[in-house]
């Protein structure tokens, strides 16, 4: 019978055998999957695992610095790479959701490729692919091609001539979390909500600019911060804030304002395939709304998304 401890032990032994003295490169995202994959491989081969954590400028407020610090605490051999400008440049003027994903995926590969080449004699690319990623990426290639492309699967290894190792590919999210717990990974990493690879770029409807990223980072930090303060964070599967491409009229003192609208989204789900909107307390929503409008310059209206998946998706893009 399956236990996370037994899975971790046998996977570490298997990785030791498979990887030997080879060097392995892995892209950390700050998420649960890549972190757990990294720790399994770290236990198997230690410093021969070279982790790369790219700041794409599309992460949550302060996320890059904080997560990089936790990775170092975990003993990982990790390099942080500031590539914000490269991503912003690639995204300039791109409004189409799939267009954004394509630019981000391409830029990520460029940055990662360059970093990986700097590691002498690297043989393997490790990925935190989990079972549902494989299912979804198969459907991406299907005739309808309607499911969003996930940039963490495919493309990279062929280009870099690397063998691929994916220690989590048989697991669902819950399994990954319990393996992470067995490896004593910090709850701050294990308990975090899923966050899309393209990050805030797909939560900014329309084109992405550093200024818009800044606004939605501030909004999101208030929303997520207050969820944590009020003990709501762990009851929600995923939450985030969306910057809408419209302005609305408001009033401040005697002045008419014409500013941005943000949407808040919080969902309950098991695997992201279906999701229900969460009935967050009115009191909480009201406080969050006031805090956002008072603190974030340029935002004068907050709405709450009450759509479930299907037919809506979790992300707006
Ligand atoms: P949707 O919006 O399709 O999202 O209901 C389901 C889950 O997938 C995440 N998501 C992505 N993750 N790259 C990712 O790595 C993507 O392009 C992408 N699009 C959506 C979303 O955050 C949710 O957890």
Detailed description of the structure:
The protein has 317 residues and is an alpha/beta fold. Helices cover 42% and strands 20% of the residues. Helix 1 (4-19) packs across helix 8. The two termini are 40 Å apart. It binds xanthosine-5'-monophosphate.
Descriptive key words:
317 residues, alpha/beta, Rossmann fold, GMP Synthetase, Chain A, domain 3, 2 domains, 4-stranded mixed sheet, binds xanthosine-5'-monophosphate, ligase, GMP biosynthesis, EC 6.3.5.2
**What is the share of helical residues?**
40-55%
**Backbone CA Rg:** 20 Å
Mean pLDDT: 92
What is the string of SSEs from the N terminus onward? HEHEHEHHEHHEHHHEEEHE
Name the CATH homologous superfamily of the largest domain: HUPs
Helical segment count: 11
Task: Write a brief structural summary.
The protein is built from eleven helices and nine strands. It has helices spanning 4-19, 32-45, 63-73, 84-91, 97-117, 131-141, 156-160, 173-182, 187-190, 210-229, 282-295, and strands at residues 23-28, 49-55, 78-82, 122-126, 163-165, 238-252, 255-268, 276-277, 299-304. Strands 3-2-1-4-5 form a five-stranded parallel β-sheet, with helices on both faces. Strands 6, 7, 8 and 9 form a four-stranded mixed β-sheet that branches.
